[in-house]
Each structure stands twice: as C-alpha cells, then as structure tokens.
Write a structure and sequence with these properties.
The chain has an eight-stranded parallel β-barrel, surrounded by six helices. The protein has a two-stranded antiparallel ribbon with strand order 1-2. The chain has a two-stranded antiparallel sheet with strand order 5-6. It is built from eleven helices and twelve strands. It has one domain: Aldolase class I (TIM Barrel, Alpha-Beta Barrel), CATH 3.20.20.70. The radius of gyration is 21 Å and the shape is globular. Strand 5 and strand 6 form a beta hairpin. It starts with a strand and ends with a helix. By secondary structure, it is α/β, with parallel strands linked by helices. Helix content is about 40%, strand content about 20%.
C-alpha cells in the first residue's frame, strides 16, 4: 500500500481525498493581476493548490536560442527577452504568497534550475515540483531534496530506468510521482493511463497524474486507477496568448473536473461487496428466494 505523505495540512495517499492542482504555470504571461485572478478563480473551482513555474532564464535558455526572434504580446522580441518577461520577481512572489494565504489555497512551483531553488527558499511553499524535463538532472533533484520539503516529480518523456535512477537519488520519503506524457495537447492514444497502476505496484509512495489532454475524462479516469494527486494546466481563457493555453482547462471546466473527481472518489467505495440498506426494500419485492 502506498505511503501517506502530508503537503501542508493535507494527507495525500490511498484513502485520502485526491489533491487537485491547478497549474497556472506561465499562463499569467508575466502579469501579476492576471495571476491573482487565476488564484482566486482556482480556489472558487475547488482546487486544493495552484502551481507556478520558476526558471532562471540565463541558466535555462540555451545560448543558441537566446537571440531567436518571436512575435509576443510585447512585440517582436528575442526568446531571451520573452523568457524574462514571463518570470516573476521577489516582490511578485511575496504578493502571490500573501494572496494565496488570504484566499486559503496552497501554492508551490516547478523549479527548472538550481538558482531557482535558492530563490524560492525565501518563501514558505508547501512542496516543490520537478518538471518532467528535469527528471534526469540529478544535481537539481539533490538540491531540492536537501530543502527538506515534500517533492513531486513528473515522469513525462522518461523511461522506467530514468524514473528508477531519480528515485534512487532522492528516495521515496515525502515523494509523489506523477505519470505524464509530455505532449501539449496530448493525443488520448498516448496517455497510457495504465502506467498509474504500474507505478503504484512498483513504488511505495503516492502516485498521481499530470494531464495535458484536451477534455476532462482521462483525468477523472486516473482517479479510478488510483491517482492520489491530479494536476491540470489552468487558464482564464484558452484564447489567451501562450504555448500552454491550448492544453489548459478554463474555470468552468475545472469546476466540473473537481466535481467529477469527488463523485468518483465516493463511487469507488472500499471494494467489499455488501447489501446496502437502500437495496433491502427492492430485495424484498423482487427476490423470489431470500
């Protein structure tokens, strides 16, 4: 049976409610007011947490890509300038921290490089996420583990051997492993949700799902397969500018996702067959042999 862990005041693992994460990521497009609107909206849908992404552009952006030009809401600028535009600074995150506490929702980030870990340690975030792209960055894994905070790792574009190596580096304590396919949006034929069951059998920790599909059904099905955490990209409007918007869920859809997950949790039950009191009148009327 997978171990139970705690993120903030929430127990996560088998038998506990699914921890639902609205990934804001960089869908805020570098605008703090938009980010706050998204936080408030995510809370209103019933999400348990919001997640951002933190990069240090001078570390994460390869030199050969820095001067590539692209069209953006801020004009025709270099890729490096774009990456800098969508990154929040310390004052922004202090306001995000304050606003999340006021709103009553957990928040954390995906860290893409070691300086970002140092930066985020200024804040009392509930855990760290390691994106699929960083699963093989063992130095980053070790640095995050050294903070002592719970860790969530995604396994998109990763082999079973690479997942094993990551787990060897950080151990299973206070760890959640998310099944994922790193395609945005993802073809349903490549979601391979049965991997959730495979991971549950293999690792003694909570297993979850980070979905990039269009629609809600696969994310709900993941709960039926045992996912303890479900993460979906979140946006106010899929027509907003940005590469992640198309695979994101708008507030109305996210509210339905939360509802469907909670109904699924109730419907799964405990696996012990019984006759419910509500069935007994039907049994008396319809059964010839009692």
């Amino acid at each position: 049976m997978p171990n139970e862990i705690k993120i903030n005041n929430r127990k996560i693992g088998e038998g506990n409610p699914v921890y639902i994460v609205a990934e804001i990521g960089i869908n805020h497009n570098g605008d703090l007011n938009t980010a706050k609107d998204m936080i408030f909206s995510a809370k209103d849908t019933g999400a348990d947490a919001v997640k951002f992404q933190k990069r240090t552009p001078e570390v994460c952006v390869p030199k050969e890509q820095r001067n590539i030009m692209r069209e953006t809401p801020w004009g025709y600028i270099t890729y490096m300038e774009y990456r800098e535009r969508v990154e929040f600074g310390e004052a922004d995150y202090r306001e995000i921290n304050r606003f999340c506490k006021e709103t009553g929702i957990d928040w954390f980030v995906s860290v893409w490089d070691e300086p970002s870990v140092d930066f985020m340690e200024k804040f009392d975030i509930v855990c760290y996420k390691l994106p699929s792209a960083s699963l093989t960055d063992h130095k980053l894994l070790q640095k995050v583990r050294a903070t002592g905070r719970p860790m969530v790792i995604s396994t998109g574009m990763s082999t079973p051997e690479q997942i094993d190596e990551a787990v060897k580096v950080i151990g299973l304590k206070d760890l959640v492993i998310l099944h994922s396919t790193s395609c945005y949006p993802c073809d349903p034929a490549e979601l391979n949700l049965m991997v959730i069951s495979t991971l549950i059998e293999k690792y003694n920790c909570p297993i979850g799902y980070s979905g990039h599909e269009v629609g809600l059904i696969p994310s709900v099905v993941s709960v039926g397969l045992g996912a303890s955490m479900v993460e979906r990209h979140f946006t106010l409007d899929r027509a907003m500018w940005g590469s992640d918007q198309a695979a994101s869920v708008e507030p109305g859809g996210f509210r339905r996702l939360v509802k469907y997950i909670r109904v699924t949790e109730m419907a799964l039950g405990d696996g012990v067959k019984c006759v419910y009191d509500s069935e007994k009148s039907s049994m008396q009327k319809l059964r010839r042999y009692l």
